[in-house]
Model the fold of this input.
Amino acid sequence: VGTLTEMSKRPRSDYETGDDATRAGLDSESDGGGLLAEYIPCRTFQGSRPGYYFKLDAKGPGYYLDKRARSGRTSHAAATAAVAADGAAASAAALMPPPKPRAPGPAVRLDPDELLAKAEREAFGGDERLAEQNATLDEKGLRRMVLAFERRYAANQTARLKHADEPDKFVDSEVDLDEEIKRLGTLAGYPELYPEFCRLNAVPSILALLSHDNPDIACDALVLLNELTDADAVESSEEGGAALVASVKENSGYELIYECLERFGGEASPEDQAAIGNVLGIVENCADIDVDAAADFCAAAPKLLKWLLKRIGSKRPTDNNKLAAAEVLAILTQTSDENKKRVGELGGIDALLRAVAPFKGKDPADEGEREVLENIFDALVAATMETDNKKAFVENEGLELMLLMMKSKRSCRTSAIKCVDYALTRCPAACERFVDILGLKTAFSVFMGKGFEKLRKSAGLEAVQEEEERAVSVVSSLFLHLAKGSERYNRLCAKFVEDEHAKCDRLAELWAKYSNRVKAVDARLATRTNDDIELTPDDLYVERLGGGLYTLELLSLIFASVFATGHAGIRERLLLQMELHAGGTAGEDEAGGAGAERVIWSRLRSVRRILETHAENIGGADGEEERVRRRAHVVKLLVAIGGGRPEGEEEEAKAAE
Done:
């Protein structure tokens, strides 16, 4: 010890600075009297040293004397010294083996939990707090954790009230509170304990921290809530996630969470930006856990949608928060009819159109900007499903903007076609406006498949199929909602005469294509075994719709509408194309006479069957009046393409059935 003290007093040489000073300390294992030093200071581990072990203890980091390992060697050294001083007799006495240890007393049985806790404390250097953080959490541990948090929170409140104007006197309590909040983050790995966490009434305290005067404490509370509601955290226990979201709602959590958007909305610092990201994450997580949370959140915080619309419309560079805001807006709009109406009432249709307008002549700069654009389009499409929002879409020249995007052939073309499809569905005013702004040429360009090869190479077959189906839906809506006999309706029908009935050829081609898809689905459903899940008739119909029946029904409506015009050239071309796709030829038709006529009309019978299925399954989601109107329209088309059955077709139909 004297040597170490002298070394610390004298000035260090260049050799002894830094790690060399450590080596100087390690070279002095004994003091001036030859006894081993109990502690050798050393900042870092410098390798093993006989008789010492390295650890961080009360004196600081360094090598500490291993008294157990040295006991045998120390006894031997003492015995040797005794021999030299007192002679052989003293040597014999000193060299005698140590006495046997006394018999132990009765064994003390330790509880397994105590043994485990002791082992964990020893594993973490005796740090009970560190051992507790790395231990498996159970209800008992959760209660201790919540109790510690509540105590720290109460202590902080007391200190702030007592020393409101003296921050130095309550800063320590806030450091302790900060530590306890972060400790609660371990609960995210145990969602099955969320109900107990809510029962302990800890959620109100967490929510109260969102209004804490110290923004760092509020940010920590946001991080905690985001972690607890994360999809990965609640995946193994949906009941736990539902209990937590319900507790947040019951304790006015939605309002408090929105207030954090106002508090940190300026995003003036990285901490504020992180806080906004956590708020948006909490909203998204709650909507994923509880389907009603989307409507409840916006009802409790009416300004939330307005804030999101403003954030995505800002001219700030695309960052994580803009991406998150666009995604949350899309989720809230898609999952709630009330939110669709709120978006329209807030002028959201105009705001969304302004947000996508810059991309009518350019592609997104990067993947992040592309994702933001897709989410904005998803929100716009969802909002356009509301009747009043369709009118706002037309009034704000949404159709004109979408046509420009379709003509530009940029990456947003597919989204623009989708938006037009939803805008025209069950909206006569939008259909009329679409024809007036010369949208037929652009729509039929997609219907004919122009640009599909380039799209297939850049975006894949799924994008091609979506554009194809959307174009069919657009043409079907035009036939359904334009007044028959009007100038607009006649312009639509005239498209099937242009270019030597090229649209008729394409219509028959698509009908045969999707008919084969539906047949493949029917064949797959027919081969189901008894071990498969039993499907109701409605389930089977939904399966067929997903397999192509929906588009086939729309194609059948277009086919019947065009055929019902009575135009000789259109009728002849459609019948010819349907016969060719059935495997026949024109020469065989002429030679077959009446038999060929029955074959041709059998193709129309297939169209009629699809329309009959469609009429039977028209639902009343839009009201009974709309359902009756649509069914009446289909019945008229069936009559128009029925024309009576040729002689012998009745028996043929029964045989086919």
